[in-house]
Design goal:
Length: about 220
């Protein structure tokens, strides 16, 4: 057994030595892309779009430290920016071009949806997807949103199709609440902008010299930041 292990050792060492710097660079970029993609949910797949080129460097131990992606969602063609280091010292930067696809479930319109419709489970259909989805494709129904345009049946819904449902319109009376430790103060104000749940709204109080900004907490209600 010991003899067999000794015979295999040189083979393993040769195989490791045959991994080129370019292959190591590509592996480092792919691993980094997977870690970043995991933060977005779903399953991502990547492949090298173009073999990377490692520039000549001074002698020493060459390592690679990925820095960032060229875009937030690693789909379609993008690249990873990687720092080159020799004996721990940064000696340059290089990019690794990748192609990314996504595997998951997106929401499609079951039928024609009218503008200003509030999405519900009976209006959408979860659909398996493998490829490059439209930017901002919905994977779940968002709260406090409605369609800002009509959507035909079968189309994948995206964030660009939505707008916040306004709970406060400019000119509305809004009850503003401010809390400091155990003290709570409320007063009636007038909205000077339009806003939905969780959005910022400009409010004007009677006799105040300027408007204040608060967070909408419900219809006709807001909380001072």
């Amino acid at each position: 057994m010991r003899t067999a292990a000794l015979l295999l050792l040189p083979t393993a060492m040769v195989a490791q030595a045959q991994v080129s710097p370019a292959e190591r660079l590509a592996d480092a970029a792919m691993a980094f892309a997977q870690v970043e993609a995991a933060k977005l949910g779903g399953e991502h797949r990547f492949k090298v779009a173009q073999p990377p080129r490692v520039p000549a460097t001074k002698p020493g131990k060459l390592t690679f430290e990925p820095s960032h992606l060229s875009k937030r969602e690693p789909l379609g063609r993008f690249f990873v920016v990687v720092a080159l280091k020799v004996d721990g010292e940064k000696v340059g930067m290089v990019r690794v071009d990748l192609d990314g696809t996504w595997v998951g479930t997106v929401l499609r319109a079951k039928g024609d949806l009218a503008r200003k419709a509030e999405l519900s489970a009976d209006q959408v259909e979860p659909s398996p997807f493998d490829g490059v989805p439209p930017e901002g494709a919905l994977t779940e129904i968002p709260e406090g949103q409605r369609l800002m345009r009509s959507v035909p049946a079968g189309r994948i819904l995206t964030r660009a199709d939505l707008e916040t449902i306004p709970l406060v319109q400019s000119g509305d009376k809004v009850r503003l609440t401010a809390t400091h430790e155990t003290l709570t103060i409320s007063l009636d104000t007038t909205a000077r902008s339009r806003a939905g749940l969780g959005d910022r709204v400009r409010l004007e109080a009677p006799g105040a010299r300027r408007a204040v900004t608060a967070i909408v907490t419900g219809p006709g209600e807001a909380r001072l930041q």
